[in-house]
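step=encode ok
step=design start
structure_in=
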């Protein structure tokens, strides 16, 4: 786990996600992508 900067529609968010300590690749699980991230995306688009 490590802090990752996520950007969407000009806004930056720092969240803890699984990431490779060697290459920095980030794992976004299906549950996260279709759950919380979708919810945030919809909220941002409504603004």
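sequence_out=
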């Amino acid at each position: 786990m490590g802090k990752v900067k996520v950007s969407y529609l000009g806004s930056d968010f720092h969240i803890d996600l699984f990431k490779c300590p060697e290459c920095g690749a980030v794992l976004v699980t299906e549950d996260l992508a279709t759950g919380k991230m979708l919810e945030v995306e919809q909220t941002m688009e409504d603004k």
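step=design ok
step=annotate ok -> The longest strand covers residues 11-19.
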